[in-house]
């Protein structure tokens, strides 16, 4: 390539299109919020995580722990929302970290986040297969291998993710509304009956909040929020993104926090304050269903079991949509093959990137099965690893917000948005990352060897992206300049 052609390419506009076709859409605040909330899987989180916070975290203080995590993530949302306005590039963490900390850190973080999305997807295929197997057996059906059900999930998710995001948004919206209404009905009935020992405000006292393993409670609570950052990934498919993305981010964080605080309070009330911790510890996977049967009846239990499957499916679809757009964005920037950065001419979706992600999910899950990992191990190991990686990326983004607004002061960004909130967010997220490191074996429910391997692997993935950026700077500067779609 001649020097003149390189200069022409560097001067060309950094478009997210190929051959005139790019991602298009008119998603509003509610559309993005629903698509992102589905990633969090409220019902799946209620069944699979809340009892862990109660039983192995800070016990009766679980509702307070969720509120504390909500405050921390709202602080993060302040700087994140400001960056979404003044760094109008697709890619979310990838774009924002690049803008604040440079292209090498940005690409390293992109690899880290993309790796975490693949991990959570693989983990959820283990969870999906196990949950579907339990449902079928519980309803008197045959006990087929769990991976057969996972394969059905994979095919359905891959098909929907191929089409325009509006198709996924409609499906996710319906599933989310139904599962949330179901959980809120559970909350209302249990609280109306007064549970086993009456309704108490003890879960919101300082004593309850600081009891037990508060660090673990905050860590597991934080894991349930992972995915809310995906609001910015849909920038190219959103109408008025400067307003919609910050608004959707706040909405998602507040909803998740209040939802889990209320539902954990209802669960504790249903179990009884004096027995909640012991019962959650003894049966973390079934405590919610035990309360549901007692206060809502067997029919409600069966409906909840069925909707748990739809909740996991919605999470899968949301996760694949987010993963696909990361791959698409990196392809547009030249980091990945350009063919993956071509949108579908009819659906205006990142179809090629989506098919590629589907194949990667299939291969990774097959490898896990081949090495004889159980469905439980696949879920706990990879979901825990993904939570840790996302927390690390969030802490790095808060640092990027601090640096960016110091270097690029803007009269529209006051001291609170550009400095105070990001600094407080950075401090709280670094604390969560430290908790994750010191409690990693508990987070993944694995051995110290597995924990050490995964944490080292996380660092290696970041370093690979960082070094790749350095290589591009030396060997392909025209691509290096495009990292994060920066214009300077």
Kindly name the structural category: mainly alpha
What CATH calls the topology is Amino acid/polyamine transporter I
The DSSP helix count reads 21
Instruction: Categorize the overall geometry.
Output: globular
Fourth-level CATH superfamily: Amino acid/polyamine transporter I
Main sheet characteristics? 2 strands, antiparallel
Radius of gyration: 22 Å
Keywords:
single chain; 488 residues; mainly alpha; Amino acid/polyamine transporter I; globular; disordered N terminus
Describe the protein's architecture and organization.
With 488 residues, the protein is an all-alpha fold. The chain has a single domain, classed as Amino acid/polyamine transporter I (Up-down Bundle), CATH 1.20.1740.10. Helix content is 75%, strand content 1%. It contains 21 helices and two strands. Strands 1-2 form a two-stranded antiparallel sheet. The longest helix is centred in the first third of the chain and has 36 residues. The chain is globular. The two termini are 22 Å apart.
How would you summarize what this structure contains?
With 488 residues, the chain is an all-alpha fold.
Topology at a glance:
Elements: H1 3-11, E1 17-18, E2 21-22, H2 29-40, H3 42-48, H4 50-58, H5 62-86, H6 93-101, H7 103-138, H8 146-162, H9 165-193, H10 206-209, H11 214-223, H12 241-271, H13 276-282, H14 287-296, H15 298-332, H16 351-370, H17 375-407, H18 415-438, H19 440-444, H20 448-475, H21 477-480
Helix pairs in contact: 2-9, 2-12, 2-15, 3-15, 4-11, 4-13, 5-11, 5-12, 5-17, 5-18, 6-7, 6-17, 7-8, 7-15, 7-16, 7-17, 7-20, 8-15, 8-16, 9-12, 9-14, 9-15, 11-18, 14-15, 15-16, 17-18
